[in-house]
Amino acid sequence: MSIVRTEKLHYDYLKYREESEEPEITHALKGIDLEIEAGMFIAVAGNNGCGKSTLARHIDALLTPTEGSVWVCGMDTKDQGHIWDIRQRAGLVFQNPDNQIIASVVEEDAAFGPENLGVPSEEIWKRVDEALAMTGMTAYRSMSPNRLSGGQKQRLAISGVMAMKPECIVLDEPTAMLDPKGRREVISALGALNKEQGVTVILITHYMDEIVNADKVFVMEDGLVRMSGTPREIFARTDELKAIGLDIPQVTLLAHELALEGVEVKEPVLTIDELVEQLC
After folding, report:
1. Which tens digit of pLDDT belongs to each residue from 28-61?
2. What's the alpha-carbon Rg for the chain, to the nearest Å?
3. SS3 annotation, the chain
4. Distance, CA of 190 to CA of 187 (rounded, Å)
5. Whose CA is closest to 190, among 221, 223, 151?
6. Which phi and psi (to 5°) does residue 6 adopt?
7. How far apart are CA 195 and CA 175, in angstroms?
8. Binning pLDDT at 50, 70 and 90, where does residue 76 land?
9. What is the pLDDT of residues 196-239, one digit of tens each?
């Protein structure tokens, strides 16, 4: 069953330039057709300005299509009567966790979402306990968010969304502001949510090493989906990815260069262990 589906999705907005009094129309999305099955880990990759964040905001109904349609759990995002149902089913985590953290104590911040949904108090704290445990934040529940690292803050933002019991969680470049340790923490937490809790994860990213464990990848450029497939299928198109300007994981690139030099390497290689095994 598809949890998210788009059909001929277009989105335009007006952009004003200092040198011109007349606004220009920017075509951010140019006819996106995609379908995401429930329970999958999806990665949407692309450079800045390709339209991936605009797509994320359509899934949470923060934006509505200029043309075409978006359905979330069978509900049309243009139907105002379903807006809150859609946002409860599909939670959105922004790039900067400080934009989502509002309470002075970790556990109170995780409780904010379900409290605003009118969930009974006893159920709220049960959800908070579960959400903090899922993201590895239980030990920090009595701390101030101001004392958390970047990775911990992002995991708290994810906890707040998970406490609302969404079927799908959309993350708009959640690791862009983090150091390598923080990035690993967040990606690990997302993998656990997907595999252990069955939550559909849609990860928006420009870090290509973060898509390696996804079930399916959509690569965007200039408002269009240029490629789709498994990570192995995507990384088999190394030259096309380089032409788009996307970075290739170092181990994948190394294997590609070795193959060009005549070393017997079966491409694409996604992990260091794979490369070591083939070379040995």
Report:
1. 999 999 999 999 999 999 998 899 999 999 999 9
2. 20
3. CEEEEEEEEEEEEEECCCCCCCCEEEEEEEEEEEEEECCCEEEEECCCCCCHHHHHHHHCCCCCCCEEEEEECCEECCCHHHHHHHHHHEEEECCCHHHCCCCCCHHHHHHHHHHHCCCCHHHHHHHHHHHHHHCCCHHHCCCCHHHCCHHHHHHHHHHHHHCCCCCEEEEECCCCCCCHHHHHHHHHHHHHHHHHHCCEEEEEECCHHHHCCCCEEEEEECCEEEEEECHHHHHCCHHHHHHHCCCCCHHHHHHHHHHHCCCCCCCCCCCHHHHHHHHC
4. 5
5. 151
6. -120, 150
7. 20
8. very high
9. 889 999 999 988 889 999 999 999 999 999 999 999 999 999 88
Cα–Cα distances in Å, from 177 out to 135, 151, 207? 18, 9, 12
Q: Which two tokens stand for residue 19?
A: 């040198």
Quote the pTM value: 0.88
Instruction: Output the pLDDT for position 175.
Output: 87
pLDDT value, residue 189: 86
Answer whether residue 126 shows pLDDT above 90: yes
The β-bridge partners of 34 are 6
Q: Residue 22: pLDDT above 80?
A: no
Q: How many residues in total does the chain contain?
A: 280
Q: Are 60 and 92 in contact (CB under 8 A)?
A: yes
